[in-house]
Amino acid sequence: MASHVVGYPRMGPKRELKFALESFWEGKTSAADLEAVAKDLRASIWKQTADAGVTLIPSNTFSYYDQVLDTTALVGAVPPLYGWTGGDIGLDIYFSMARGNATKPAMEMTKWFDTNYHFIVPELGPETKFSYSSRKAVNEYKEAKELGIETVPVLVGPVTYLLLAKAQKGAPKGFDLLSLLDSILPIYKEAIGELKEAGAKWVQLDEPALVLDLEASKLEAFKKAYSFLGADLGGVKLLLETYFADIPVAAYKTIIDLEHVSAIGVDLVRGAKTLDLIKEFGVGGKIIFAGVVDGRNIWANDLAASLNIVEELQQALGKENVVVSTSCSLLHSAVDLKNETKLDAELKSWLAFAAQKLLEVVALASAAAGKKDEEFFAANASAQASRRSSPRVHNKAVQEASAALKTSDHRRATPVGTRLEEQQKHLNLPILPTTTIGSFPQTPELRRVRREVKSKKISQEEYEKAIKAEIDSVVKLQEELDIDVLVHGEPERNDMVEYFGEQLEGFCFSANGWVQSYGSRCVKPPIIFGDVSRPKAMTVFWSQYAQSVTKRPMKGMLTGPVTILNWSFVRNDQPRSETCYQIALAIKDEVEDLEAGGITVIQIDEAALREGLPLRKSEQADYQNWAVHGFRITTCGVKDTTQIHTHMCYSNFNDIIHSIIDMDADVITIENSRSDEKLLSVFRDGVQYGAGIGPGVYDIHSPRIPSTEEMAERARKMLAVLESKVLWINPDCGLKTRKYAEVVPALTNMVNAAKQLRAELAK
Fold first, then answer.
1. Residue ranges of the alpha helices (H) in 428-496?
2. E runs forming strands in 627-745
3. Which helix (H) or strand (E) holds 752?
4. Residue 550 pLDDT more than 90?
5. What letter would DSSP give residue 688?
6. Rounded Cα gap, residues 288 and 255, in angstroms
7. Would you call 260 a catalytic residue per the annotation?
8. DSSP 86
9. Of all residues in the chain, what percent carry a pLDDT higher than 70?
10. Helix H segments across 100-180?
11. Cα(63)–Cα(61) distance, rounded to whole angstroms?
12. Residue-by-residue DSSP string for 501-538
């Protein structure tokens, strides 16, 4: 029986691509050096997948930055800003689009559906001229073939690509991006034709937009696209791959009727209802690539349950019409459990990273073909039973405290407008107050200090001395820059989620469980395996120290329960809402300890609130209710004079603005600059927001340093729709990934922009 994976992590088991990219960007290595690392990684991935026994192996899932940006290169949709004049798109243009450069901003970046992966948003308009400008898919197919490995080239499908795009500046209002479909399809046809000539037997087109609630006109676009692409293929089979949710009934009926599509990939982990559609409506003579192995989590599959689904499909469709696959690309999973030396044997038995998921896919395919590996299945069953019964997982006191939360909505008693007046009496801030989001640059020296205290190469006393010195430096810098509300810079923190997870019960941590977030940026999500509680205070010591060295307000910095949840590998044996409430109780205790310790401004970041929003509208209200409730639990016990901030970044917030208001924070700082100030359109449309708000005035994910006037002009646009008494001036996000040589001039310009605007308002 055939086996397949949708995609595989591209960074490498030890983040080899990350380090190669950053070395290249810093000018330490050449393009040839970078390409050599990339080629070795691709070969290693293909060989590992083949050796595991997978029969349909993906290619062109590797990327130097992002697969959607690769598609922009494929179709030659480079915005005019970047000065591309045609021909193959080289690394200079490619990375300028992704990261910006000294003179040009980066393209917008946002979350890939409901994941923590970010993609570069295509910018298209009526003047866009598509051309076949990158032969990456063909080249990588040939590269694998030279190694003796037959692969399935993968492309982001044309309809999903257009639906994910945004209209270029200057495009007519209401410009329909799908009007470009007729122009882009010949480029895809040409690429598929070259793949056919190179010998490809299958081409996978990822169309995850099919799981969204699409109106009929958008479904018609799929009919047009695949009628055109599939005609006269002559032996190349098209796999239409979907993932992340159930396929809606109308979309399912549409795709089973696509004449030239040979197979459909379906997510049967997050989209279990799709199984009912298959039984009710059939598959239109197509092969089903059954995504039964979870590509978005790190828990070992319940193989017996997965095999039941596969056998059910076989009975309904015939054995020859079912292929065992992953639910989505393994890009969203950690790479290989064999690199984990810190996890104990019991915990490791409950887990499966990408490399282990390859083995699960093959084991299921073999079992479905009548060649069941009894020993492999028995070990899996034993691990499943161990996890269900382990006392490490269950804490009755935590469960009872969480259950009791549902009797209240945990709102602060005083309206936000009144609270802000009380807070201003204590804080005495100027109009348009300035602040930063939390982190300051993480230098190699800081990382060394944290590493050495963990390995006991330095004492706790030496560690605290080094961290205090860094806090002193960051505070002094902010005072010199004349920033109004300060942060301590978070020098003691490795990651905004991991730092808290390490101090909470119910969490464990991998040593090398890295997952790509965007570009070279990787995160190592905590693993929530059991009930969550806080044994002791987590941040109070450092926040109190930072406040002691300045008279200006110092923010206590916390990560909110929804973000901790959404940026972790979450246990799958209870509802996510239950785990969220448990985390909320722990953060509530920390908030109240900070307040008792003299911290009067507390920021609770909810950067990931939007990305947890279910893709289907019918499921969104329930998520928003419990997620917002979880945040309010953390803040419901503080005084009116304690100012609660929150922060959100790199998502489309416009469709959840009422939930953001319902969080009842005193101040929200929110990404705005890289997304062309889309957030402001909400307020232009009449949404009333009475709390403080700081839409970011510059993009910290680019090395580019905007001028004072550029930031001032951005803030003027904000003042056109927001009252000056509620507006804050701040960057888009934390400064952890930047260098001080970039941060100091950027913050200088930001503060000067605020002062310039204050002077204008005073006239």
1. 444-454, 460-481
2. 643-648, 667-670, 692-695
3. helix 740-762
4. yes
5. -
6. 12
7. no
8. S
9. 98
10. 136-146, 158-164
11. 6
12. HTTSEEEE--SS--EEEETTEEE---EEEEEEE-SS-S
- Catalytic pick among 4, 118, 410, 701: 701
Structure tokens at 81: 């800003």
Cα(166)–Cα(68) distance, integer angstroms: 13
Token readout for 633 is 């639990």
Give the residue with greater pLDDT, 680 vs 221: 221
Q: Which amino acid is at 540?
A: V
Is residue 16 pLDDT above 80, yes or no?
yes
d(CA 564, CA 573) in angstroms, rounded, equals 18
Q: How many residues does the chain have?
A: 763
pLDDT band per the 50, 70, 90 thresholds, residue 611: confident
Q: Are 167 and 124 in contact (CB under 8 A)?
A: yes
Distances (CA, A) of 489 to 508, 557, 678: 25, 9, 29
Rg, the chain, Cα only: 26
Q: Rounded distance, CA 2 to CA 11, Å?
A: 27
Residue pair 358/5 in contact by the 8 Å Cβ criterion: yes
Q: What values do phi and psi take at 312, rounded to 5?
A: -65, -40
pLDDT score of 19:
98
* Of the candidate ranges 278-287, 405-414, 487-496, 678-687, the one whose mean pLDDT is the lowest: 678-687
State the Cα–Cα distance between residues 641 and 414, nearest whole angstrom.
Answer: 11
**Residue-wise pLDDT tens digits, 368-401:** 999 999 999 999 999 999 999 999 999 999 999 9
Distance CA 754, CA 619 (A): 41
Q: E strands along 157-308, which residues?
A: 166-167, 202-206, 237-241, 263-267, 287-293
The Cα–Cα gap between 516 and 117 comes to 7
> 512: how many CB neighbours lie within 10 A of its CB?
18
Q: Which amino acid does the sequence have at 491?
A: P
Question: Is 196 buried (19+), middle (13-18) or exposed (0-12) by CB count in 10 A?
Answer: middle
| Contacts made by residues 475-481, CB under 8 angstroms, sequence distance 24+ | 475/546, 475/549, 475/550, 475/554, 477/440, 477/744, 478/436, 478/552, 479/550, 479/552, 481/744, 481/747, 481/748, 481/751
Please report, for residues 585, 618, 627, 682, the alpha-carbon distance to residue 213 in angstroms, rounded to integers and kept in the order given. 35, 9, 22, 22
| 3-class SS shares of the chain: helix, strand, coil, % to 5 | 45, 15, 40
State the Cα–Cα distance between residues 174 and 514, nearest whole angstrom.
Answer: 40
What angle in degrees, to the nearest 10, is found between the helix axes of 460-481 and 444-454? 150
- Cβ within 8 Å of residue 723, ≥6 positions away: none
Q: What is the mean pLDDT of the chain?
A: 95
CA 650 to each of CA 62, 109, 654, 676, 733: distance values in angstroms, whole numbers, following the listed order: 23, 7, 12, 12, 9
Determine what percent of the chain is predicted with pLDDT higher than 90.
88
Q: Give every CB contact of residue 534 below 8 A, 6+ residues apart in sequence.
A: 503, 504, 505, 585, 586, 587, 589, 590
């469980």: which residue's tokens?
513
- Residue 349: how many other CB atoms lie within 10 Å: 18
The per-residue pLDDT for range 638-696, each reduced to its tens digit, is 999 999 999 987 556 677 888 999 999 999 998 887 666 666 777 777 677 889 999 89
Mean per-residue pLDDT, 65-83 = 97
Contact predicate 531/399, CB 8 Å: yes
- Residue located via tokens 């010195």: 469
Q: Which of 238, 329, 333, 324 is nearest to 54 (CA)?
A: 324
Give the C-alpha distances (Å, rounded to integers) separating 690 from 576, 683, 701.
31, 11, 29
Q: Which residues of 278-288 are buried (b: 16+ CB within 10 A; e: fewer)?
A: beeeebeebbb
Residue 748 amino acid letter: T
CB 264 within 8 A of CB 283: yes
